[in-house]
């Protein structure tokens, strides 16, 4: 009998002993040489702990700190505040400070964003009536964006990921509102929506 064959119960008087296989996914040097591995991976055999996937146990990523969670909402707030601050300090009601709307220049019609800078200027200076006269849709957009931002920040502070799932019908409805607003503000009876 050769030494590489397992000992049968009849030969030893006890149960058959088989070589132990390596854990799944570990080939090691024995597997490359065509031999069956008989021990754990080298890191465990030499007393080194194998780091778990993802940096923490269970393969989950490490939880983000509060500062990292609120970084994006606060960064966006800083950018929007800077943009509104610039528009509030450089009056768009005086020509020469901002480029002319290309759609208005080429067609003579107001686009949905025409008057948006003037409405932002009015919002910064607290003239909400003037903001609505310049671009009512933009004012609704500013308010909606502020509410969505507040919800995003509150979810991040509580450690819940911000998940905004908007149904396709809402996008189509929003597009229809913008289209109707654009057409009506260019007609004689909708002149009150023109900037």
From TrEMBL:
Q: What is this protein called?
A: DUF2752 domain-containing protein
> The organism sits in which domain of life?
Bacteria
Give TM regions. Answer: 70-88, 136-154, 169-194
Q: Which UniProt keywords apply?
A: Membrane, Transmembrane, Transmembrane helix
Pfam families documented for this protein: DUF2752
Region (Disordered) location: 1-64
Q: Which InterPro entries match?
A: DUF2752
């Amino acid at each position: 009998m050769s030494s590489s064959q397992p000992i049968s119960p009849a030969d030893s008087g006890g149960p058959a002993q088989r070589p132990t296989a390596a854990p799944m996914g570990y080939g090691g040097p024995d597997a490359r040489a065509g031999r069956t591995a008989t021990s754990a991976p080298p890191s465990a055999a030499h007393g080194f702990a194998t780091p778990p996937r993802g940096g923490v146990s269970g393969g989950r990523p490490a939880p983000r700190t509060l500062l990292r969670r609120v970084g994006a909402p606060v960064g966006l707030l800083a950018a929007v505040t800077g943009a509104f601050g610039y528009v509030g300090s450089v009056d768009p009601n005086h020509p020469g400070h901002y480029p002319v709307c290309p759609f208005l220049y080429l067609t003579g019609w107001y686009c949905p964003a025409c008057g948006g800078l003037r409405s932002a200027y009015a919002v910064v200076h607290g003239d909400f009536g003037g903001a609505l006269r310049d671009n009512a849709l933009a004012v609704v957009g500013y308010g909606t964006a502020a509410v969505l931002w507040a919800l995003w920040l509150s979810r991040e502070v509580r450690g819940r990921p911000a998940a905004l799932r908007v149904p396709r019908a809402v996008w189509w409805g929003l597009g229809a509102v913008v289209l109707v607003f654009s057409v009506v503000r260019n007609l004689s009876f909708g002149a009150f929506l023109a900037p």
